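Hey L., structure's done. Input below.
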Amino acid sequence: MGRVVVHLHGRAKDASFRASISDYANRLSTSGVTLVEHRNQTEPDVYLKEIADKNPDHNIILLEEDGEQLDSLQYAEKLKQWSLNRCDTHLVVGPPGGFGPSSDPHTSISLGMITLPHELAAVVLLEQLYRASTINKGLPYHRR
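Output:
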């Protein structure tokens, strides 16, 4: 059974973002989704290499604005697929300046065509994963 690991580049500086990240991480703890906060001083290529080196043969997906766009139901389907994989899936929220050329060998998903501060992107990603988990469990959180 595969886990989903969300990687954040640094701890959110803003207290409201930290609270939201913590809230959604707690809600997701029973759904096989975990959160890892990395040092925010790390360069994008070093950050990605560290994740890849610690998790060889795992699925690494970056959050980038030009990545695959998913709606909430598609996130639910992806979460179901990731949970059924033999290896873990690592969703990587980048540093404030993005990943640059170090993103080339990785697949990516997008939270939309807008540019978000990386701390807000983390909150939106975690909320979508929580929404996806409630859809998969048949809970009424998601409304159409």
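Residues 4 and 123 are 16 Å apart (CA to CA). The chain is about 40% helix and 20% strand.

-- N.
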